[in-house]
Amino acid sequence: MITSTSRNYKMLLLSWALSARIAILDPTLTLSTPPRTTAYVGMDAMSHAMESYVSKGANPLTEIFSLKSIELLHANMREAVKNGKNLEARTNMLLGSLLAGVSMANARLGNVHSLAHSLGGQFDVPHGLACAMLLPIVMEFNLDYSLEKFKKAAEAMGKDVSGLSARDAALKSVRAIEELCRDLGIPKDLSEYKISKSAIPQLVNDAVIFPVNPRPTTKEDLARLFEKVI
Fold first, then answer.
1. Looking at residue 106, what is its pLDDT?
2. Other C-beta atoms within 10 Å of 110: how many?
3. Average pLDDT over all residues of the chain
4. How far apart are CA 191 and CA 169, in angstroms?
5. What is the pTM of this model?
6. Domains delineated in the chain
7. Counting Cβ atoms within 10 Å, is residue 209 exposed (0-12), middle (13-18) or buried (19+)?
8. How do residues 72-105 score in pLDDT, each as one tens digit?
9. Which of 137, 142, 147, 131 is nearest to 213 (CA)?
């Protein structure tokens, strides 16, 4: 990620020439990560997993990776934030992040990251914080376009969906993420950043619409999503 300070804009550089041939994932290197940072990066990984899972670009392989990532991250994030020295929780978080990264790189992402990149570029909102706040909002926005997958996501997070309608079962995944954010101390909005609603047009202008988001999205949709956190 590169931030253009002259434009207040975040952008990506993508090339195989920038990719490592080997990545060594050592959970002991994460043991000293502060709780807030752990929560932010954990929710960023969760947004990678969830968005790539319901992406129009998903395939059977990426779906396996992302669904397992959702399970691992949800089951271990609270403990990793509460007790950062828990090596098992840290290991599972790292594995979940890896699986989400593989899925994301192939299936791509959606509205959560579209909005988060714009907020980060314009107002320096931490990326993981933005993703955490936006994830349940965007999930609910996308809900009716991927009911079965959101149902499976709810089950991966340990929710009992037996006897529920397809929509109510899918909605359980949204509530599970809301509960997780609450337990991690993630605020519901960006009021502490004092961002005026007058900034929304520019935020929308800087937001890239990802075509793989499950629900077709307009600039007007993005504006309404921004309004929910500003």
1. 95
2. 28
3. 95
4. 31
5. 0.93
6. 34-227 (1.20.1090.10)
7. middle
8. 999 999 999 999 999 999 999 999 999 999 999 9
9. 142
